[in-house]
Each structure stands twice: as C-alpha cells, then as structure tokens.
Amino acid sequence: MYDEEDLSLLDIEEELESPLDKIEPITAESEIPKPDPDEMLALLENPQPQKRMLAARAFCDIEDSRATPLLIRLLSDNCPLVRVSASYGIGRNPSADAVEPLIAQLYRDWNGYVRKGVVWALGNCRDRRCLAPLADALRTDISAVRLWSASALAQMAGVGYEAIVGAMPPLIEALVQDKVAAVRSNSAWAIGQLCKELPSNIVYATAIDALIQAFAEDKDLGVREDAKASLLGVGDPRGLQLIETLEQEGWF
C-alpha cells in the first residue's frame, strides 16, 4: 500500500486533475503548428532529460506508432518527468506491446505522479492484462492514482464480458468504502459505463444496487449526483423509480 504522502512532483491541490490537464493540446486553430514527428522521434533519444521530456509530451498530441517503442523505453528513465511524459505519450499511442512495461512500472515507480499517468495509459490500452493491476491500484494506491484507476477500469467495457465482470468488485468496493469523494464519484461513473454493456444478471443487479445505495446514502452531494447520472444513463427501471420517488418525497 502506498503512503498518501508519496506525492513528490504531485501537487496536493492538483492531485485529482486529469493526467493531461497540464499539457495544453495543439488544435487545428492554434497558431503554433504541431511538432514535426521525425524531429520528436529523434529527440526521444536525446541525452538531455529536458529534451526527452518535451519530445515525449509532443506525442500526447501526435499519433505515431513509431514512437511507442521509444516511449516504452523511457518508462524506466532516471528522470521522473520523462517517465510521466512517456506514460502520457503511450496513452495517446497505445499498444499491446506497452501493457507489460506499463504494469511493471506501475508496481515499481516510487513517484505518485508517474503512477497516475501509468494507470491512465493502461486504461487506454484496453487490454485484459490491465484489469488486475488497475484493480490493485484502486484498492491500495494514493488518492490521485485511485481516482484514475477507477476511470481506467471503465475502459474494460471495450475489452469483453469477463473483463467487465472482473472490474465490478473493486469499483463497487471503492464506491462504498473509499474515503475520498472524488474516487467514489469516478467509481460511480465507471460502474455506469460498464453496466451499459452487461446483460440483466447478478453482476448487473449488484452494480445497480451499489449505485442506488450511493445515490440514497452517500454524504457527498457530488457522489450522489454521479450515481444518479449513472442510473439515468443505464436506464434501469429500479433506479429510475427510486430517483423519482425520492425526489417526489423531497429528499433532494
């Protein structure tokens, strides 16, 4: 289990933001053109950490499969800023080849900011192998990493039925038990995304029960609203009836 104080390079006030919040995207309307992919590929192997970091960040905006092997190599760079930038770059250029290196880095990296980027990238890889490490991170890591592990587990919707079923227990556990409201909120959202892909079975019913409980009982208004949004998004009759009943009775 990681210490909540393990926040080197992770600003406490900003720890719950998206991994890419501080990386400004370059849009078609921007005055600054996108970096040249060939130049950035060369810089990924530059001896100066600052240039490696800038090149890795460029691939948060550039999709180029040629970068992925080099970004994988940078996951074990000595500089944590390079490692976190490499994880973001892989998240934009996901590959099955990146899954095992990402998992290895998640378990060994001392830096919470890096692990936050790694779980985001793992989710984007949409691979069955990502399920266990993401579930473990949701249960044991610092709050910023738990937050993005919950969101990443929602990507199991695109992996398959078994992955969805495997993602539900840690998400329900986090929704019910996590001490941080933002983690509970992301878990509610993720459960809603996964429920849309499930048939009406015991797994589905258990997940809906958890969302109903969070909507009715969570002390945080934001969590209740996210649970409600998930219930509305899924369109489950029990959930819709409860929402209507509680609102008619003036609970909210």
Describe the protein.
InterPro entries: ARM-like, ARM-type_fold, HEAT, PBS_lyase_HEAT. This is HEAT repeat domain-containing protein. Keywords: Antenna complex, Lyase, Phycobilisome, Repeat. Belongs to the CpcE/RpcE/PecE family. The chain has 252 residues and is mostly helical. The protein has 13 helices and no strands. It has helices at 37-43, 49-58, 68-74, 80-92, 99-108, 112-125, 131-140, 143-153, 161-177, 181-195, 202-217, 221-234, 237-248. Helix 7 (131-140) runs antiparallel to helix 8, helix 9 packs antiparallel against helix 10 (181-195) and helix 10 packs antiparallel against helix 11 (202-217). It is elongated and about 65 Å long.
**Structural class given helices, strands, pairing?**
mainly alpha
What is the number of helices?
Answer: 13
Beta strand count: 0
> Tell me about the biggest sheet?
none
**Fraction of residues in β-strands:** under 5%
Which shape, going by the Cα principal axes? elongated
Radius of gyration: 19 Å
Q: Percent helix among the residues? A: 55-70%
How far apart, in Å, are the first and last alpha carbons? 37 Å
- The sequence of SSEs as H and E is HHHHHHHHHHHHH
**Poorly predicted regions:** 4-19, 22-30
Q: What does the average pLDDT come to?
A: 88
